[in-house]
Amino acid sequence: MPEEDEEESPRKKKKGRRVFSRKRLALLVIVLLIFSAGIFVQHFFVEPMFGELPEKYSRCMNQQQVLNDQFNDCMVQKSACEYQLQQCKQA
């Protein structure tokens, strides 16, 4: 008799669990797309902006040095003029 029961109801096959279900695969694809978009934005938009910054910074520093030199020259001339004015007032 036990044999008859086994024959009547077919054994259910155990489903093997797949490593990636549809949800996991979709999530993985979405994450990869987000990373790809981030890499694209960084390469074509962010890096060119930062690539120009050192050049602009060095140009700005050069201009600042020139302006500081000109300012110092003006201060020397101003003090020389003030000295001459004081000499004229004393005479």
What does this structure look like?
- The chain is mainly α and 91 residues long.
- It has one domain.
- The chain has two helices and no strands.
- It is rod-shaped.
- The relative contact order is 0.04.
- The model has no long low-confidence stretch (mean pLDDT 83).
Broad structural category: mainly alpha
Report the end-to-end length measured between terminal Cα atoms: 140 Å
Low-confidence stretches: none
Number of strands: 0
Average pLDDT level: 83
- Overall, the morphology is rod-shaped
List the helices and strands and how they pair.
Layout lengths: L1 H7 L13 H69 L1
Notable features of this structure?
91 residues; 2 helices; 84% helix; rod-shaped
In short:
This protein is mostly helical. The protein has 2 helices and no strands. The chain has one domain.
